Q: What sequence folds into this?
C-alpha cells in the first residue's frame, strides 16, 4: 500500500458540495491499495503512520505522533498514487481492482481506529474536493513495498 501523509492544522473532504469527512489537527492520509496487497500491508501501514513522530514537541522538534497530540486522521482513497509515469499519460494498472481497493481502504481505516485514532473518511470512488491547511508543511510518502 502507498500513502501520502500530510500533517494538517485542519482538513476536510466534500462530495457534491456536502462534507463527507472533516478533522482538526492531525493527519490527512491519501491512501492507495496496490495489486497483491493484503490486510498485512494495511496493518503495517496503519502501525507505521500512527507512530510517525512528525508533530512538534515543547522544544519545536518533530518528536510527537498523532496519538501523542490527540489528533485525528482524515483518510481519503487515492488510486492515482499507483501512477506509472513511463510516458506522458499515467497508467494505473498497478492499483488494486476497485472492489479489493475499497475493501483494503475500509480495513486500513479500521486499523487506524484500532490504533486509537479518531478517523473521518472521504467516499471511495467518488469525485472529491479535498481542502487542507498543511502544517509545516510536512508531507511524507510511505510505501509498504519499500
A:
Amino acid at each position: 500500500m502507498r500513502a501520502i501523509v500530510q500533517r494538517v492544522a485542519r482538513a476536510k473532504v466534500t462530495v457534491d458540495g456536502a462534507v463527507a469527512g472533516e478533522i482538526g489537527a492531525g493527519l490527512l492520509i491519501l491512501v492507495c491499495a496496490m495489486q497483491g496487497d493484503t490486510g498485512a500491508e494495511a496493518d503495517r501501514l496503519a502501525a507505521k503512520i500512527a507512530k510517525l513522530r512528525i508533530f512538534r514537541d515543547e522544544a519545536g522538534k518533530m518528536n510527537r505522533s498523532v496519538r501523542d497530540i490527540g489528533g485525528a486522521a482524515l483518510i481519503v482513497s487515492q488510486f492515482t498514487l499507483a501512477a506509472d509515469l513511463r510516458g506522458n499519460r499515467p497508467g494505473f494498472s498497478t492499483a488494486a481492482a476497485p472492489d479489493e481497493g475499497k475493501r483494503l481502504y475500509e480495513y486500513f481505516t479500521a486499523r487506524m481506529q484500532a490504533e486509537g485514532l479518531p478517523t473521518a473518511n472521504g467516499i471511495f470512488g467518488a469525485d472529491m474536493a479535498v481542502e487542507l491547511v498543511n502544517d509545516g508543511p510536512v508531507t511524507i510518502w510511505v510505501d509498504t513495498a519499500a
